[in-house]
Amino acid sequence: MPVNLKAPVAQDLAPVAGIRIGVTEAGVRKANRKDVTVFLLDEGSHVAGVFTKNRFCAAPVQICREHLASHSQSIRAIVINTGNANAGTGADGLARAHATCDALAGLLKINAQQVLPFSTGVIMEPLPVDRITAGLPAAIADAQPGHWAKAAEGIMTTDTLPKAFSASATVAGKTVQVTGISKGAGMIRPNMATMLSFLGTDAAISPELMPALAKTLADQSFNRITIDGDTSTNDSFVVVATNQAGNAPITDWNTADGQALMAALREVAQKLAQAIVRDGEGATKFIQIEVEQGRTEEECRLVAYAIAHSPLVKTAFFASDPNLGRILAAVGYAGIDDLDQTQIELYLDDVHVATKGGRNPSYQEADGQRVMKQQEIVVRVQLGRGSASTQLWTCDLSHDYVSINADYRS
Amino acid sequence: MPVNLKAPVAQDLAPVAGIRIGVTEAGVRKANRKDVTVFLLDEGSHVAGVFTKNRFCAAPVQICREHLASHSQSIRAIVINTGNANAGTGADGLARAHATCDALAGLLKINAQQVLPFSTGVIMEPLPVDRITAGLPAAIADAQPGHWAKAAEGIMTTDTLPKAFSASATVAGKTVQVTGISKGAGMIRPNMATMLSFLGTDAAISPELMPALAKTLADQSFNRITIDGDTSTNDSFVVVATNQAGNAPITDWNTADGQALMAALREVAQKLAQAIVRDGEGATKFIQIEVEQGRTEEECRLVAYAIAHSPLVKTAFFASDPNLGRILAAVGYAGIDDLDQTQIELYLDDVHVATKGGRNPSYQEADGQRVMKQQEIVVRVQLGRGSASTQLWTCDLSHDYVSINADYRS
Description:
The structure is a homodimer.
Chain A: E1 19-24, E2 36-41, E3 46-51, H1 59-71, E4 77-81, H2 90-108, E5 115-119, H3 129-141, H4 148-154, E6 163-171, E7 174-183, E8 196-201, H5 210-219, E9 225-226, E10 236-241, H6 256-278, E11 286-294, H7 297-309, H8 311-318, H9 324-332, E12 345-348, E13 351-355, E14 358-359, H10 365-372, E15 376-382, E16 388-395, H11 399-406
Helix pairs in contact in A: 1-2, 2-3, 7-9
C-alpha cells in the first residue's frame, strides 16, 4: 500500500498549452493495457532531459541523448512504451528504437531526430517494435491536452498508482502552468524497471537555461530519492517548455519571475519524486533524511545515502524499532574519513535521541518508539563540521519488498 | 540455516604453542552464556590487527589501536566480551574499557597497555564492567591451549554456529600451526554486532612483517565478504605469532618458507571469513563473485560490491531466478565512468549467459535456472578492459533477513 498517496483526479491536472497527449493499448507485452503514450509538442517547444548514469543504459536513452544534443529546440514528439525496456539489447536494440522514431516521424511528417523515445519494462528482450508502431496511429488520434492523468496511467509498469501533479505560478502578470507525471521507483518487478518523469510548462524560458534546468530540478527531486540503491538502465527525466504562456522569456532564475516559476517547477518535480518513494516496492513508511552541518553538500549526501541504503536501518523502520545504533553506525561508515563522532547529534522528528555521538541522557525510548510508529518520519543528523546540508527521501525495507523482488518474473 | 557449514570439532583444532584460552559465564547481558573469553599470550608473542573503518568505532577499538601502536611486541592478553559492544558510549565507554584492561592486567601482573580489549553486542548501552571484571578470575583459571572451540563459542552473539579452523605448514623443516576463530557477519540482531576474528600461529615471524601481515590477510579474506554492506563499529581482526615453533623467523614472504606459511594463514583466514557469510543472517546461498579483466583491482572491487550489495540481485538469488538484467545493471552503475557495455561477458558457474553486453544467443534459461538453484554459485563478470581481477563472497537476501532484523531488540 502506498504511503499517503492517492491517484490523481484528471480535473485537478492543468493542461499545458502546446502539449497534447495520446495513449493506446498496443499489446507490447500484455493485452488490454495502456502501454504506448505519445506527447505531441507544438513548434517552438524546447526540451531538456537528464538520464541514467548507468553505463548499461538502454538504447532509447542513447538515442534521446543524441537527439537532444542536436534538436533540443525542435523536438516535436515523445513516445513511451511500457512492457519492454529495450536495454541490454545491443545494436539490434538501437535499430529498433530508431525504427520507432522513424515510424512516428513518418506519421507526423517530422524528422526522426525530432522524436524522443522511452521504454520501460523487461530487459534483454527484443523490443516488439512492430506492435508499437502499429499502435502509433491510435495514440496520435487520441491526443488531447487534457490527457495527463491518462498518460500517468499509460506509463505505469508495476506502480500501484499513477502519479501526476500540477502547479501554477504568476510570471510577469501571466499565469503559467506546470504539470508532470512520473512512474516507478528504482528497479521494479518483473525485472527491473525505471524511473520516468515528464514535466511540461507553457512558460516561456530562454532556451539556454533549459539544459541546466533539467539538471537543477532533478538534483532537487529525483536525485534525492532512493528505494534500494539500484539505478536503472532507463531512468529519464524530461522537461518541456512550450513557450505559449505569453510571458517574457525567463532569462535569469534570480528574479522574482524566475523564482516564482522555479518554485512551481520544483514543487511538481518534488511531489512526483516523493510519489515514487511513497509507492516504493513494499513501502510502509515515508522517510525524510536531513543531514546538516556538513562541510560540503557532497559529504552530507554521502551520510544521507548511507542511512537511506542501510538494510539494517530500513528494516528497523519497517519494525518501528528506534534502533539508533544502526543510524549512527551508518553515519560512521558513510565515508567521511575525518568525521568526529563526538560532534554528532541525531533527531527523530522532534525527539533528540543522540548527542555528542552518544545517547542523549534525557532521551526516553518511548519517545523514539512513538516517532518510529508514524507513517512519515524525519531523521535529522547534525555533523557539527560546517554549514552545508542536504535532504533525501526513502522508504523502509519490508517483507513485501523481498516477496515482490523474489517472485519469479511473470 | 547456515550454507554448508558445520560446528568445529574440538579435536580438529590444533593448539598453538604460547596461547592459552579461557572462557567463562560472566552474565554480561544474559545468564548462562559463555560471554567472556581471554587469550593469554606467552612472552615473545607479536600481535597485529586491523580494525573497522567506521568513524563511530567503539571504545575498545580505539584502545586496541593505541595499545598496538606502542606494545605490539609485548601484548600478553586479549579479553573479549559479548552482550555489549561498548560503542556510541563516549568518554564513559573509554573509561570502562580501560577499567577492563586494568583489572586483567592486575590479575596477570602485567601493564594495562599489554591488554587488548574487544566487545560485541548491543550498542549505546553502558558496558557492565563490574560483571566482566568479576568474571576474569574464572576465565583465567579456565585457560588451556586446547580451548579454541570453546572460544569460538564464547565470542558468538547471534551466530548460529561457532566458527574455527586450523591449518599447518612446514617451515624450514618445522611444522607450524595456524588456528583461528571468527564470529558474526556484518551487523546482527539484537542491535548490530560485529565481525571479530582472532588468528594464532606458533610460527616465528619477524615483527616488522606483522602489521602488514594483518592487512594482507584481511584484504584476502574479511575484506572480501559482505552480507548487507553495513560496517560495524567494532569489526576487528587480530593475528598473534607466538614465535615458539622453532623455525628461523620469516623475514620475507617471497621465499618457499614464507609462501608455505602464508598459504596456511590465508587458508584459515579465508575459511573463517567465508564461514561468516555461510552463517549470514537469513542466508540460503553462498555466492562467489569474480570480476576479471578490469584495468585495476579497485574497479573490479567496485563492480563486485555493486553486485553483492544490490538488493535486487540478492533477492533474485534467494528466488533462484536467473535474472541477468539485475546483475548487468549493477555492473553498469558500479561507478566505472567509461565502462563499455559491449565488452561485458557474464557467466553463472559454467553457463555463459551474456556476451558483448547482451544475452548470449546460445544461452538457455533452463541452464541459468539450474545454476541458480544451487546452494553455491559463482558469478563471473569479464569487463574486457584489462588484466586485473578480484573476488568476494556474499549471500542472498531472504525473508529471514528481514525477519531477523525487523524483530524488536530482545
